[in-house]
Structure formats: structure tokens, C-alpha cells
């Protein structure tokens, strides 16, 4: 390696251009063989570096979303639910609702695929460059309760309000006290027309006061904000996790 090559590698490392550093020699050889112009050579290097950075950003967004596991729409078994509007779900995967700060509510019994679809939609959002956070209703309540004890509620609220898409999974599966009801109301209220919220629940809207500590006034105000710009997907059927005992 001559002095020029050594100096070039040193500068590329300092500039944090790993694609340049790794591929410049091979691309130089290809450029010489194929008589590339200087412009084309530079274009190839820059395009490679941009692609590398875009891929790294996607990896970081997916990691930050804190998925319980990665699911895609292609993996969803459309034949299992007795009722689901496939066209509606596929339209939602275009993610137009994110640009309008719209919300999505997935309603259905246990095991019909609500969480799978929530993950698939959120993963698609990450791939398209949007920030997201996947959590459960109980985790939000517990985290905010712990933050209140340490004076960190404001910081935690910023974490919940900031993402383009927030998923609140399993709303209604466990009882929520007054603090929890107020906390979830504050999260949804602060995200209203600022970001999109996706909620999965096993309870019909008429039963939501029971989720929110039997506070009909709070529930009505929450639904007013949540449903103002929202699409509701109703899924009916048996639990997919029980398919093997049923089929055997």
C-alpha cells in the first residue's frame, strides 16, 4: 500500500465513510476496466454509502420500536378469521393514515391476529422511514406510575408522544385503576392530531368504560379524540393458537 492509499483510508475512516473505505479499491478497478467517468465513479460510491446509511437507519428504527417479534402481512393467515376486511387492512398498509395523523383500532377476541397485524403495520412504517414504538396498555400504566414516583413523568410522556406511530397493545385485557385510566387518556390526548395511535383490544367500544375504571366521562372524551380520525378493523373468529387442538 503506497502513501496515497494509506492517507486516503485514514481520511475515509475519519469522515466515517465505511462504504467508501471498503469498496473504493474495487470500484477504482472496475472504473478503470470500464472507462467510467469521474462522475460515474463518485456516483457509485455515494449511492452505496447512502444505501448503507438507509439500511442502518431502518435497523435502528426497528430496534427502537421494541417489537415482541417481527411479523409481516405476508405471514398472516387470512383463511383463519371468520370475519376480516382484507381489503381494508391492505389499504392501511399503504400507511396513508400516518400522514393524516389518523388512528387505527383493531377489535377482536383473543388470538384472532390483532397483534400480528399491529406489528406488521408498524414494521412497514419503520421500513418507510417512520419512527414507532410498540408497547402494551399495562406497560404504559406501569411505566408512568414508576416515572411519577421518580419525577420522570414528563420525560416518559415525551417518549410516548414523540413517535410517528404508537401501538398500544392489549387494551382491556387487564383492569386499570384511576391512575391508569388518567395516564392512558393523557397519552392519547397529547397524541391527538400530532401522531398516529394504533390500539388492539378485545372489547367493543360500548364496554370501554369498564376498561377505564368505569369513568364514562373520561372514556367518552378519549373515544372522541381517538375516533375523530380513525379506522376500525373488526376481526371475528377463534384463537389461532388453538388451531392444532381443534384440527386434531
Walk me through this protein's architecture.
The protein has 248 residues and is an alpha/beta fold. The chain folds into 2 domains: 3-65, no CATH class; 73-247, P-loop containing nucleotide triphosphate hydrolases (Rossmann fold). Helices cover 57% and strands 12% of the residues. It has 12 helices and 5 strands. It has a 5-stranded parallel sheet. Helix 9 (178-191) links the parallel strand 3 (165-171) and strand 4 (196-201). The protein is elongated, with a radius of gyration of 24 Å.
Summarize, please.
The chain has two domains: 3-65, no CATH class; 73-247, P-loop containing nucleotide triphosphate hydrolases (Rossmann fold, 3-Layer(aba) Sandwich), CATH 3.40.50.300. It is 57% helix and 12% strand. It has twelve helices and five strands.
Amino acid at each position: 500500500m503506497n502513501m496515497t492509499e494509506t492517507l486516503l483510508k485514514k481520511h475515509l475512516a475519519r469522515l466515517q465513510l465505511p462504504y467508501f473505505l471498503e469498496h473504493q479499491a474495487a470500484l477504482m478497478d472496475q472504473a478503470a476496466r470500464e472507462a467510467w467517468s469521474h462522475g460515474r465513479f463518485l456516483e457509485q460510491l455515494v449511492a452505496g454509502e447512502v444505501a448503507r446509511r438507509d439500511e442502518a437507519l431502518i435497523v435502528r428504527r426497528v430496534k427502537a420500536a421494541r417489537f415482541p417479534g417481527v411479523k409481516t402481512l405476508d405471514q398472516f393467515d387470512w383463511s383463519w378469521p371468520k370475519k376480516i376486511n382484507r381489503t381494508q387492512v391492505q389499504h392501511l398498509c399503504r400507511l396513508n393514515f400516518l400522514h393524516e395523523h389518523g388512528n387505527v383500532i383493531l377489535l377482536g377476541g383473543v388470538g384472532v391476529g390483532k397483534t400480528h397485524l399491529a406489528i406488521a403495520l408498524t414494521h412497514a412504517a419503520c421500513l418507510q422511514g417512520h419512527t414507532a414504538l410498540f408497547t402494551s396498555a399495562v406497560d404504559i400504566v406501569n411505566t408512568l406510575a414508576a416515572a411519577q414516583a421518580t419525577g420522570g413523568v414528563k420525560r416518559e410522556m415525551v417518549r410516548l408522544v414523540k413517535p410517528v406511530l404508537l401501538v398500544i397493545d392489549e387494551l382491556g385485557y387487564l383492569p386499570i385503576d384511576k391512575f391508569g385510566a388518567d395516564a392512558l387518556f393523557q397519552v392519547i390526548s397529547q397524541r391527538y392530531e400530532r401522531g398516529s395511535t394504533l390500539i388492539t383490544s378485545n372489547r367493543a367500544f360500548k364496554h370501554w368504560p369498564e376498561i377505564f375504571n368505569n369513568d364514562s366521562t373520561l372514556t367518552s372524551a378519549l373515544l372522541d379524540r381517538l375516533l375523530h380520525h380513525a379506522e376500525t378493523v373488526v376481526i371475528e373468529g377463534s384463537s389461532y393458537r388453538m388451531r392444532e387442538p381443534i384440527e386434531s
